[in-house]
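A reminder from the course coordinator: this example appears on the midterm review sheet, so study it carefully.

Given structure:
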């Protein structure tokens, strides 16, 4: 037994027997352990707070600037365009003729703009906006008359938390406008110089993926699906607000899955996101992929809201009816809508897109269209004339049979409702699959 004096080794602990000593040692060690645990937890919490702050800053740096609230004003014959901008912005502008347009390109931003301007004034007819290609956003403003940019500047945040991008337009003569357009083919860069370098980085066809050696030796047929419009070109807008560019992309992805699942088709999409691709590049994607067939998907809108149903179009120099001619004229203007300068095209490209058509390709397109029409009439509502002919530029590939499929009319509320359903898109995809099988594998039967 120890005396009741303090232990020289453990001050403050009385020696009252070996069991009592062990108990007190354990109690003190437990206190020390808890103290160290609390200390390390506190340090960890501080570290996590610091890391969270870093992540927050990092995520904020990745946020896109936001362009919103575009408005117009007229002062002393000068038209002022103002846009609120949340975050930094770098932009360039240029003018185009036939028709008159002001085009504004900027490093990629998010848009919070109304689809249409409420109060049109000062020679402004309307505008469009969206992603032109990865890294570059575009606003296209339609003009009723020739103008020049008098001033352009950015007002930094002050009383309001956002910047303001201001562009002043002044009227001019057509001859001066055309002279300016010709002189400014080399577009003037404003703000950060990396805008120009960013545009140069973009490949001609971003969405095109080179085939692997395994794909090259595959016997599966290559089908190019082309969701029309995209980015700054919305296409038609339905009664309930459905955008053609969105609905055709959804349908293309749904059809792609159905065709790929069969194992008989290798499917390439001209675009996989909300971006714009010029008509000539859509054709180029199919030609580079050595496609066996090209299918362009659309969902148009016309004045007569009673007209509904799917329609298959093939290329012809003469349209089969007035409706087909008007539709082809609208679709062929997609590049103009998005602010592409067609005057700068070489004669060779223009000839390929506009003038040259191989007769055998047109015949094969008509045969394929017939096979598709046979199948879609069994599954979905079709137009009273389900196969028509018109001069679509997007169908003018010299050596690839091509069709343009109008899935339905967004100007008809029944069609618009159906187009937004997965069930309709699956029915359409199955009809296209069976049409392809009928065209490529005559006499063979498959399980669906």
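Designed residues:
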């Amino acid at each position: 037994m120890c005396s009741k004096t303090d232990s020289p080794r453990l001050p403050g602990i009385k020696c009252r027997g070996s069991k009592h000593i062990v108990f007190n040692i354990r109690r003190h060690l437990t206190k020390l352990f808890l103290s160290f645990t609390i200390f390390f937890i506190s340090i960890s919490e501080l570290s996590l707070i610091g890391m969270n702050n870093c992540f927050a800053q990092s995520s904020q740096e990745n946020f896109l600037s936001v362009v919103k609230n575009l408005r117009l004003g007229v002062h002393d014959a000068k038209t002022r365009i103002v846009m609120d901008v949340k975050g930094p912005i770098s932009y360039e502008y240029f003018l185009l003729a036939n028709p008159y347009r002001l085009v504004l390109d900027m490093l990629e931003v998010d848009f919070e703009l109304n689809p249409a301007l409420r109060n049109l004034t000062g020679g402004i007819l309307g505008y469009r906006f969206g992603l032109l290609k990865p890294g570059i956003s575009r606003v296209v403003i339609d003009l009723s008359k020739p103008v020049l940019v008098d001033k352009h500047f950015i007002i930094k945040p002050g009383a309001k938390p956002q910047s303001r991008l201001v562009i002043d337009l002044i009227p001019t003569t057509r001859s001066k406008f055309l002279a300016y357009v010709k002189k400014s083919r080399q577009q003037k860069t404003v703000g950060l110089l990396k805008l120009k370098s960013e545009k140069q980085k973009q490949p001609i066809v971003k969405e095109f993926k080179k085939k692997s050696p395994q794909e090259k030796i595959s016997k599966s047929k290559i089908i190019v699906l082309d969701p029309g419009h995209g980015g700054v070109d919305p296409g038609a807008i339905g009664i309930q607000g459905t955008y053609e560019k969105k609905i055709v992309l959804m349908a293309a992805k749904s059809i792609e899955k159905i065709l790929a699942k069969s194992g008989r088709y290798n499917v390439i999409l001209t675009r996989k996101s909300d971006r714009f691709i010029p008509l000539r590049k859509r054709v180029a994607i199919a030609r580079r992929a050595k496609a066996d067939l090209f299918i362009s998907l659309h969902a148009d809108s016309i004045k007569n809201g009673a007209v509904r149903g799917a329609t298959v179009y093939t290329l012809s120099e003469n349209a089969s009816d007035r409706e087909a001619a008007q539709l082809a004229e609208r679709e062929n203007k997609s590049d103009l809508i998005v602010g592409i300068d067609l005057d700068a095209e070489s004669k060779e490209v223009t000839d390929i897109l506009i003038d040259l058509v191989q007769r055998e390709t047109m015949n094969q397109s008509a045969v394929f269209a017939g096979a598709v029409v046979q199948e879609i009439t069994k599954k979905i509502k079709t137009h009273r004339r389900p196969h028509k002919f018109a001069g679509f530029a997007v169908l003018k590939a010299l050596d690839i049979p091509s069709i343009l499929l109008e899935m339905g009319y967004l100007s008809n509320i029944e069609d618009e409702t159906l187009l937004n359903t997965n069930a309709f898109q699956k029915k359409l995809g199955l009809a296209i699959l069976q049409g392809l099988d009928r065209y490529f594998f005559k006499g063979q039967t498959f399980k669906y």
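The longest helix spans residues 18-62. The two ends are 92 Å apart (CA to CA).
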